[in-house]
Amino acid sequence: MLEASNVSFAIGKTSLIENVSARLKPGAVVGVLGPNGAGKSTLLRLLSGELVPTTGRVLLDGRDLSSIGSAGLAGRRAVVPQSTALAFPFSVREVVALGVSVPNFASTMDDVDTAVTAALNRVELSHLSHRRYTSLSGGERQRAHLARALCQLDRMPNTSDARFLLLDEPTASLDLAHQLLVLDQVTHVASSGVGVLAVLHDINLAARFCDEVILMSNGRITRSGAPNDALRDPELSDVYACRVLTNTEPPNAAPYVLPQVCSLHRDGSGAS
Amino acid sequence: MAVDRGDMPRHAFARAYLARTTFKNWSVGARLLIGSGVALVAAAFASLAIGPTGISLFAIPQAIGAMFGNTDDVAALQSRLVLFDLRLPRTLIGMFVGAALAVAGAMMQGLFRNPLADPGLVGVSAGAALAAIATIALGDSLAAFWVNALGIYALPVSAFLGGIITTTLLMIVAGHSGQLMMGTLLLAGIAFGALAGAASGLIAYASDDRELRDLTLWSMGSLTGSSWEKVAAVAPFALIIGVAIPSLVRALNGLLLGEAEAYHLGIDVPRAKLVIIAITAAAVGAAVAVAGVIGFVGIVVPHFVRLIAGPDHRVLLPATALIGATVILAADVVARTIVAPSELPIGIVMAIIGAPIFLHLVLRRGML
Questions:
Q1: pLDDT at position B289, please?
Q2: Which chain A residues contact residue B311 at CB under 8 A?
Q3: Residue of A nearest to B247 (CA)
Q4: Is A152 at the interface with chain B, CB within 8 A?
Q5: Rounded to whole angstroms, how far apart are CA atoms A127 and A112?
Q6: pLDDT digits (tens, 9 = 90+) for B190-199
Q7: Which of B2, B128, B154, B313 has the most beta carbons within 10 angstroms of its beta carbon?
């Protein structure tokens, strides 16, 4: 289990996240939603160990992340960042293979080749495997990084330990079909026992693919729970400062959310 | 599978022959490593065989005889002197300097994720050079005790310390609660480099003619005066660098994706950065100490290798070391033969060869 308990994170006097708790269970997909600057990515970076909370603790199976070390963590969780610039032109294949280049991952060359090929197939990038990463479009780069993370999950040495996948806006630059493909892969990974946390902007995709959603605004959790509980008005309209329509029929289905043109319905108080 | 020559045109036969060998199936990296290894051996032989005295490799048996036997043969003694006491240490020093500077460049570019990063750019070379120049200029007066205490090691140790001091200062300036700010480091490095250059200029301005000539030659880079003492002085550095580099490959590859991604891939980023910077300072300090300031190797050679084999440091670092050594040996052969019996500073030769190649690489690539 990977959990943040009452974490806050501040840079100087600016607080980015206050008193947030979240819990990732093996096999479950948790979606993090909220407007820009709500602290979604900060929460993800705290869970990955990249940031150390100012107060509160992040625990992996009850152990504080800072006591585990980067190599140990890399054997338990993979991270797909929001965007990655590459200083020198690796090929797509080489970028994906970096997912296997982790300390303590014992792999022969053939193992690596098989894992990389499989991961590229899963994100439909096999045809670009020898292209330079720097020549890819934004969406193709995102899929390459997902393939890298899939490789890393695939080669983790202790399969008996729970594994985790953290994704920061994995569908941001993708076309419709590839959004579905990526989230399909993510749920597939989860069904093999991996605990997943994904920062998402598309509320409907989150409702469709997540077992649980966390709705954040201003560095705090506004609401969390199963999608058809949590993704309801008035919280949604409040959090996004934008009137949304949500379906209520049938009551147990994934909610469907339709934003309305914001400026027409916004009250004057918050606007400047 | 044999290839039947038959009536094939020559080029078709050559192609079929190459296709028959497993060579064709090897990766680009493996072929580059083998090719650059062969080139280095050839350059080393050239460096041993060519020189203004006209003594060639055929004199080796004679020279070995003179080393172990007791001979009065003037020609044999001269062969021994030229081959084993002049050209061999010079060749070894040249190989070390070329490999060290080229690898230092490749590591800095990987660390800073910037194709223009080079020890020259962040002031490490200039710091090492300033320390050495100060030692030369003040050797008779203020630094006399230092020179007396260290003897022939005064210069190498000074330059190495200069490199380490510059790097330490940079790390203090750019350090921020345990993190190293790469942007600050690059900019501060440029400032330090300019300061160290100005200080070197001041010392040169205050020097007498004989010192000035020494300083000028030295600040343009030269392998003149290579000796077994210098080989011994850089050997420990070569050993440390050679041992440390394989452990840095994974970190350097991961860092190309960014520091956060490197951390996600299990790399201890702060420690890796410190080790990379320390090893770079050691390589540059030792190289500047024995050969002065030689430019372009650290930037042209890694770029050349990346163009052919890509940026994977598993191939990049060894290939860069081999080709860097080859390039410096070749440039040195030119430097000591083209105006024989006099010698050009190797830094000038490197700039003349390196600048156009660098420009060509830039144009061919369209970008850096």
A1: 84
A2: 87-90
A3: A103
A4: yes
A5: 18
A6: 899 899 888 8
A7: B128
